[in-house]
């Protein structure tokens, strides 16, 4: 709708995972480095956590791109499975044929362990990536741990990447999962973008679509960080709506009032009002402390 008006050749804020728009902030790069290091270690698990929309999928996709060619990856995208269902899914992902009539934990485990040994002999690394891992049942996580028992003198034959929301951290603190927690060789919690990173993120996406960050005023960019909390997915939603509103009102630059109106349409007036008020309180508190410090400094001259 607004592409031609703003001189864009594509929608810069689509929430569809388009690799052309991949933006790796310093913290995304740090997360990737932690996971990459962890997979090179001898342990069986690495873990990435973060709130919804912080970019865990971005990091995991980049991780997959960087894995060596001699790597077979099994993906679990629906973790609400029983232990038996999970093992069957792993077999499917590894291309293993099986007899459903013989289905049992031991039957599937033996098939998978045999495949891991076969891959190792052929010089192939095996990685299992589990998304939304906070939904895994404790008994399913324990079954994953048992799969990582197969090892050489140097390393585990299966490396598991757990990706999930912060609840995953709490789940792994349970006493019955302490053995699994001890096998995590790298863990990283992905935080939201900072204010400068939000501006860089928006500039990057606009640049890919042959646009320029100047279509957002500086006060709008500050408001984007304030209202979205630095969550990339929310940034995309609100910036897309703000561009649409600016187009309908024939504004060449997205101003702060337009952005706040867009935010209210998507998040609701109460949420936006609450975040604006909290930011104002923060400014007032900061100004108070600055005044106190300055006053103390001036007063000390007369002591």
TrEMBL record:
MF terms in GO: ATP hydrolysis activity
Stretches assigned to the AAA+ ATPase domain: 42-196
Q: Which CDD domains match?
A: AAA
Please name the SUPFAM superfamilies in this protein's record: P-loop containing nucleoside triphosphate hydrolases
Please list every transmembrane segment annotated in the UniProt record, as residue ranges. Answer: 282-302
InterPro entries the UniProt entry points to: AAA+_ATPase, AAA_22, ExeA_AAA_ATPase_DNA-bind, P-loop_NTPase
Q: Which key words tag this protein in UniProt?
A: Membrane, Transmembrane, Transmembrane helix
Q: Which PANTHER family match?
A: GENERAL SECRETION PATHWAY PROTEIN A-RELATED, PHOSPHORIBULOKINASE _ URIDINE KINASE FAMILY
Q: What is this protein called?
A: ATPase AAA
